[in-house]
Amino acid sequence: MKGNISLKKTLGLGGLILFGLAYMTPMIVFGTYGVIYEESGGQVATSYLMAMVAMLFTAIAYAVMAKKIPESGSSYGYVTKVFGDKLGFLVGWVILLDYLFLPMVIWLIGGVYLEAYAPSVPSWFWLLAFIALTTVLNIVGFGVAKKVNLVLMILQLAVIIAFCAMAITIIGDQPVETSVVPDMNLAFVGAAIACYSFLGFDAVSTMAEDTQEPQKNVPKAIIWVTLLGGTIFAGASYILGAAFPDISLFASDSAAADMATQIGGIAFSSIFVATLVVAQFTSGVSAQAGASRLLFAMGRDGVLPSKVFGVLHDKFHTPWVSIILVGLVGLLALKMDITTSTSFINFGAFLAFIFVNLCAVFTYLRMAPAERTLISLFTHLVAPALGVICIAKLLVSLDSHAITLGMCWLAVGAALMMFLTKRGTKLELEME
């Protein structure tokens, strides 16, 4: 089913923003609240604000590069065009940690919640159902998936608003927690975890070839998704912190569900859990689509087998082989837990973010003096440089096991690159 090598352009600005938000999953702020609370010493809102600042600087760099290079491939494509094929391959390899394993984590979380909700049905059934349904939707085409995302996104936002509204009504009724002392180091540790919630703004760039007027719409969508997502995360976590200053009595993994029960009873808690599962589904659709576009771009460029990854379905014009592969990787969740599978996702994302920021800086240095305006100074140099500093701090704040596993993955990628180079595989791409 080779077809031609042109993806079908079905997304406008609104659809692209919806894709990014669905990938990001606004309700993830509830799913990770307890974990970030523990790691940050209760400074959840501060952690999200720190993460948002770092992500905004990086989003500006992504917007700059998306305008200059409107192709699928995201960070891999940008680094390849700016710094060369070999470094591009390595960045593409590390970002696979994010794109390949994130769908698996999303499906795993959904399966765990559904198993808790319906104990008589094993989690593997829910996991297989998630993978099968999202795979079919993505092969048929994102034109169908975006309609599903719209309905489910509205449901997510409604539950978020209801949750926060009910939480506001009990602010002042809870005992004030005085033991939480501001600690910037702990806040950075929390921010490193909170960045997981933002993964999605960068995935917008992978859909460039699915988008109408990509040089105009992709940069706008990247910034909008980061701002909207960050506002939801920081705002919701601030309200939860005010309503529940001490959650030590709640289990960290299910803290939000316990809070939902306390403010709205069993009925609201059931709605909350059901919507959280639905949110995981929408995120899975977008995550699988983004991962398949990255594999398609690497296959089309010849750094992965082009006859396998660089082909599109004749009828639907989607990278069907890559979509199926991402679904198969998701089956690893049958033998993994959430903690293990999420341990090194952020390592790959942070490393890729640093290089995209450097791409923007390098692009500025190559600009003619007449093109260097005050706006380009900020968007191409100042913001990306600050992005590098912020992301580097978050990178070293990751768990030591995550850094070790990430470095091992990077070493495997370097060995694979040397093997492909010796075989004469085409890694060279001309500068556009």
From TrEMBL:
Membrane disposition: Multi-pass membrane protein
InterPro entries for the chain: AA-permease/SLC12A_dom, APC_superfamily
Compartmental location: Membrane
Broad class of where this protein is predominantly found: membrane
All copies of domain Amino acid permease/ SLC12A, residue ranges: 18-379
Transmembrane annotation, as ranges: 12-36, 48-66, 87-112, 124-144, 151-172, 184-201, 221-240, 260-279, 320-338, 344-365, 377-396, 402-421
Highest taxon of source: Bacteria
UniProt keyword list: Membrane, Transmembrane, Transmembrane helix
Record Pfam families: AA_permease
Name of the protein described by the UniProt record: APC family permease
Organism, as annotated: Marinomonas ostreistagni
